[in-house]
Amino acid sequence: MIRKTPLAFGFCALLAGAPQAFASFDMEYCKWGEDDCLLSGTPVLEPGNDSRDNLLRLLSEAKSVTLPIQPIPADLTRSRDVYFAFHPQWDTALRAAEMTTRQNENDLLNQQMASLHVDPIEFNHDDEQENRFVSNNADSVSQFFAALLSDTTLTAEQKQALAQARLGLYSGASAEQISESLITLAPESSSVSYRTYLTGAAHFYTGEYAAAKQDFTPLVNSDRPWLAETAQYMLMRTALNKSAENSTGQYGDFDIQRIDRNAAAQAENAAQDYLQRWPEGLYAESSRGMLRRINWYLQNWAPLAGLYEQAFLQASDAQDLKRLVTEYDNVVGMQFYDQSVQQPFTDAPVVSYIEMLRAIRPNRDKVPTLTQTDLDASKPFFEKSGKLSLWRDLQLNLWMATDNLPAILQTVTPAQKLPARDILAFSEQVMYGEALMGQKQWPAARDFWLKLLKLSEDGEQQQYLQAKLAATLVFNGQAAAVFAPDSVVTNLRYRSRVLKAVATPELLRQQVRQGPNNEERTIALHTLLVRDLTENRFNDWLQDRKLASEITQPIIGEAFNDVNLTAFEWNGTAAEAGYVCHSLDDTVATLSKHADDAHALNCLGEFFRTTQTHVDLWKDAAGNGVLEVAIDRKEPFGQFDRQSYYQQVITSPKAEHEDRSYALYRAIMCYAPSGANECGGEEVDKLQRKGWFTQLKTQYPGSPWAQKLKYYW
Fold first, then answer.
1. What crossing angle do the helices spanning 492-501 and 505-514 adopt, rounded to 10°?
2. 252-284 burial by CB neighbour count: b if 16+ within 10 A, else e?
3. Res 687 pLDDT > 50
4. Which of 191, 219, 394, 535 meets the CB 3.0–4.6 Å disulfide criterion with 158?
């Protein structure tokens, strides 16, 4: 991490006030890079991944950094929580380490304030600070206090007065108020230099950059080491903030064209002066971060790419690497989201690779921006950099994006061994398998995924490959093989998708009886019973209902609320007041004998209306990759169509007046209040709904439903 120092934060923190670059795909979810935000992309390098995921995965290998990836449960046959997308529970995780750090900081501050004999205050709004104010925080107060406590030339009274003034600055005191509070300091005392620093800081926070520069400049030669170093650093920050003071566009957005380039150049000189004098100083890493910001402001893209490449290689740990990747995406991603990189940057092969991989994403014309000519021209650069493997990966991805699948199959050799922690090698193998699938070589693809699954020892890779294998089996009409006793597709999420979307009733019954656990049996039975009802297999439903005895403990709870078997215990009391229904069991029993029974059809509609029971294809749909393509159906199984029941009753010559009037009422209410059909089935036009309304009002004027209905939609 960049060390938080007085009046200094890392570049990433200062970006809080800059516009965010939406170059990646997770902006509506948890904040990428935070401790509780895990990687949501796939464990391969591909254009469709969040660029930050690609970059962090690639960089982490050389440093043996542990990636923030989803945990793999010991028993995947009972969990649907392993998939490659955002996990809702991630952004609610407790940050115990952060809370401990804050407590330690508070303890230190309390000790310092006690030593300085100043009254303690609450430090509780640091996270709300933006732009230049981010450095006016509890940590910078503590650093100032530490400088006072270590300065033997100051008296206790001077230390106390200066500490009190620093607390005033934290609370928003102006330079004039600070000067007034310290007016009694002896002119010949070194305490005056600390006062000058505080007034300079106050000018800085109020945007009076000329006055801030005037205060900080003489302090550079102070005999107080902390003051001299901090003043030099603040001269850089002052020039940097001055360069951006008029950079707000017409609509409140950041406009880099409005940057004061002269002030930015002054900031660059000040940063270089600082690093030359204090190469390992308190603010050295922050100054290097500011140099990246300055090059961004000056639009020096090639040098900026080199600075990031260097910073990535020097990152000390996972947290530092995540912070740098976040910063990079906010800066470089903002520039190259619409203006793709098609040529490599000098001295930055990894950055060049990431940006050229981004350029393979389909553009507005649905083709990659990066052309084969561009890629061919870049090969000597990657070769000279010793990174030809990165170029090869770009080539394979470009062939994949342009459907040149034979080239992939001809170039890649199926692995006999799979190196550990080699994402490029794994990505290459995956593209080979995808090319087989793209050419519909299903048996070959199946065998390839099976072999790759045996070669991989990485839990995340194995889950990714299971989805590929499951999709291949479904594409090849072998969905039942997913559930074979020796199947290596053990992830319940993938098995659930296949059960819900493509399994036959026979396969569903098999899994109710032979599924490996109550979780899978519950999913299978719920799906089977819903399909029996929606496909009018009422006799089957009565028999399949008995299969509940095969499940020793049906699964309930939020994780399985899409397959809650208690829904079928519907007793009719939830039906519309004034319309009496018996239990679902009785209703289906009636329909098994008389499939056109008007009252039973209406009551079946009431069951679906009040419980919304259906085969839920959304609950576990995210992050399953090509499996979602394999199971996709134009008309998915298990979706209720209440409207068809009402239409049957409306047109039935045997329907009682009570049942037909209620069916008319419900058919019209399918479109209330939005005008969109909420009952399932094909929409009927407004003229038809008007006809139903007229029929209800004229033929059944005395019915409660005619009296209750005021409009049609």
1. 140
2. eeeebeebbeebbebbbebbebbbeebeebbbb
3. yes
4. 191
**What is the model's pLDDT at position 136?**
85
The closest alpha carbon to 667, from 641, 698, 703, 635, belongs to: 641
- Of 135, 141, 129, 95, the closest CA to residue 289 belongs to 135
**Count of beta carbons in the 10 Å neighbourhood of residue 686:** 12
pLDDT at residue 339, as a whole number:
66
Q: How far apart are CA 87 and CA 232, in angstroms?
A: 45
The per-residue DSSP string of 408-445 comes to HHHHPPPPSS--TT-HHHHHHHHHHHHHHHHTT-HHHH
For residue 162 the two structure tokens come to: 């200066």
- Closest to 706 (Cα-Cα) out of 674, 664, 672, 678: 664
In whole angstroms, how far apart are CA 368 and each of 337, 365, 430? Answer: 13, 8, 20
Q: Rounded to 5 degrees, what are φ and ψ at 347?
A: 65, 20
Cα–Cα distance for residue pair 703/696, rounded to 1 Å? 9
pLDDT of residue 94: 39
C-beta of residue 357 within 8 angstroms of C-beta of residue 45: yes
The distance of Cα 509 from the centroid of its chain, to the nearest Å, equals: 37
215 in Cβ contact with 196 (< 8 Å):
yes
Question: Encoding tokens for residue 349?
Answer: 């092969």
User: Are the C-beta atoms of residues 655 and 683 closer than 8 Å to each other?
Assistant: no
State the pLDDT at residue 133. Answer: 79
Location of structure tokens 């304030």: 113
Q: Is residue 34 scored above 90 in pLDDT?
A: no
- For the record, the structure tokens of 385 come out as 């950099």
The span from the CA of 559 to the CA of 619, in Å, is 9
Whole-structure pTM value: 0.84
Q: What is the pLDDT of residue 124?
A: 66
Q: Is the pLDDT of residue 7 over 90?
A: no
Cα→Cα distances 400→25, 350, 387, 435, Å: 21, 21, 21, 8
Q: 24, 32 in Cβ contact below 8 A?
A: yes
Q: What is the DSSP letter of 555?
A: -
pLDDT cut 70: percent of the chain above it: 91
Residue 476 pLDDT more than 80? Answer: yes
| 407 contacts 53 by C-beta, under 8 angstroms | no
Q: Categorize the per-residue pLDDT at 331 as very low, low, confident or very high, splitting at 50, 70 and 90.
A: confident
CA distance 458 to 420: 8
